[in-house]
Write a structure and sequence with these properties.
This protein is α+β, with helices and mostly antiparallel strands. It is 21% helix and 45% strand.
């Protein structure tokens, strides 16, 4: 009888410890710290000229998005920002392409993303060409790093 009590106690102890550690692992959930506003300035490269990007976001997503480049100021409208929905982002990068006149000429690309150490949750690309309207593309994916 004493043998069964020891086994029962050991099983209960192991069961209790496994529950305790599994609960502790589930309690530590990471979450993105979204920016409220961000401004990025670049002197540019080659013939891009200076570029400035300003983004403001709140509880309902991005409320202001401006790109200054090619001697122009591009302010995106709510309709242009609609593909982004109410996603909130925590990062931004900008890049430039010489482009071709048939495709609108020089281009500035702004990549917005929501990324965590475990992977990218959402992203969006805003493209501005010197001869066209800004284009907004939401990129929805869940690319968990392995």
């Amino acid at each position: 009888m004493r043998f069964f009590k020891k086994i029962g106690f050991s099983v209960l102890t192991l069961l209790g410890l496994s529950i305790l550690f599994s609960c502790a692992a589930m309690a530590d959930m990471e979450g993105p710290l979204s920016f409220t506003s961000v401004q990025m300035d670049s002197e540019g490269i080659e013939d891009s000229g200076p570029v400035q990007v300003r983004v403001v976001q709140g509880a309902k997503g991005i409320s202001k998005f401006e790109i200054s480049g090619f001697g122009k100021l591009f302010s995106l409208t709510k309709l242009q920002l609609a593909p982004l929905g109410d996603d909130k982002f925590n990062g931004l990068t900008i890049s430039y392409s010489h482009g071709y006149s048939a495709t609108g000429g020089r281009s500035i690309y702004v990549l917005l993303y929501k990324i965590l150490p475990s992977g990218t949750e959402a992203a969006a690309r805003v493209t501005v060409t010197e001869h066209g309207d800004p284009q907004v593309e939401a990129i929805k994916y869940n690319d968990k790093l392995r």
